Amino acid sequence: MQEFGGPEGMAVVALPAPVAARSQVLVDVEAIGVGGVDAVIRRGDLAAYGFREGHVLGGEVAGVVAAVGDGVDPAWIGRRVWAPTGTGGGYAERAVASADEVVPLPGRLSAVDAVALGSAGVVAHFGLAHARFAAGESVLVRGAAGSLGIMTVQLAARSGAGVVAVTTSSAARGERLRALGATHVLNRAGEGSPAGFDVIIDVVAGPDVPSFFDVLNPNGRLVVVGAVGGQPPADFGARVMVLFQKSLSFSTFSANTVPNDDKRAVRTAQFAEAARGDLTAVVHEVLPLAQAASAHRRMEAGEVFGRVVLTP
Question: Where is the chain membrane-spanning (predicted)?
């Protein structure tokens, strides 16, 4: 990403090869997950958090460990792994990751499927837990066509949700989400709901957040797990106060608050489930790294169902 703004500010450039520092592994990258947060960083929306022009995007990769830093067991070398690259560095041929966060891949799980599941699965799992979701409750997944929304639909359905509703942009996408566990398909405004919801998992955020408090049941919980639609209005909490007698709750959730051991345990289990066919990794398209800008254009145009994956 050479400059903030649209995808045209992205370019492939030559940089010095990374080196595994202490407690890190170096990964020969086979697949790179393209996430909504990458677009948010690219637009410059997170500049206040230290992101600068020239930043290498990409928060997760899968591939083979090529080298390890001091303090890391050399037995990792040659193993296929999923690896989080933190705040960036994944859009590359080689990337480094903290050794205590990498997860070995089952033999039957491809690198492409791993990056469609790795980050999304953990956020979906712990996001539902953060919402105190319980079997029998009704769940609305707002912005369900991306990898995070798709994983939330699957996990909620198999955990016994009474209703799993989704917002999405087309009937065709709605049918695909029904095949993954959705029971009701609503438009993007949440219209068409048969009743209220106990839990809303919101991947979108943006200016429409206040209207979704209206479709929560008493004691309902809305948890924002992504912000691809930008920030909610500054006064969005006023709607909660208007609905004071419903005892509604609003919160945000970031996987950064979950201990690494807990995240690794969930990812290990989810990768095994995907290898057995019990979880579905939905990959929209696999593109070469040189077409990263095209991947972002398709994502922002709303063309992507699942995850776009890049390969070096």
Answer: none
Mean pLDDT of the 183-208 span: 87
- Nearest C-alpha neighbor of 137 from the set 111, 164, 169: 164
87 is written with which tokens? 């705040």
Side chain identity, residue 217: N
Could you give the residue ranges of the DSSP H alpha helices within the chain?
A: 36-43, 111-130, 147-158, 171-179, 209-212, 237-242, 260-276, 292-300
For residue 213, give the 3-state DSSP assignment.
helix
Q: Does domain 132-252 sit in CATH 3.40.50.720? A: yes
Is 288 in a helix, a strand, or coil?
strand
Give yes or no for a contact between 6 and 301, defined as CB atoms under 8 angstroms apart.
no
- Please list, in sequence order, all residues whose beta carbon lies within 8 angstroms of the beta carbon of residue 119, skipping any fewer than 6 positions away: 33, 35, 59, 60, 84, 147, 148, 255
Q: What is the pTM of this model?
A: 0.93
Alpha carbons within 13 angstroms on the beta-carbon side of residue 206 total: 11
- CA distance linking residue 151 with residue 181, whole number of Å: 10
Specify the 3-state DSSP secondary structure of 29: strand
In total, the chain counts a number of residues equal to 312
pLDDT band at 192 (very low <50, low <70, confident <90, very high): low
CA–CA distance, 54 with 188 (Å, rounded to integer): 34
Question: Is the separation of the CB atoms in 227 and 40 below 8 Å?
Answer: yes
The CATH classification of domain 7-119+258-311, taken from the options 3.40.50.2000, 3.40.250.10, 3.40.50.720, 3.90.180.10: 3.90.180.10
- CB within 8 Å of 306: residues ≥ 6 apart: 116, 145, 146, 147, 150, 281, 282, 283, 284
Asked if the model's pLDDT at residue 194 lies above 80, the reply is no
The answer to whether 222 and 202 are in contact (CB under 8 A) is: yes
Q: Is the dihedral of CA 213, 216, 222, 225 positive or negative?
A: negative
Render pLDDT for 113-123 as a digit per residue (tens, 0 to 9): 999 999 999 99
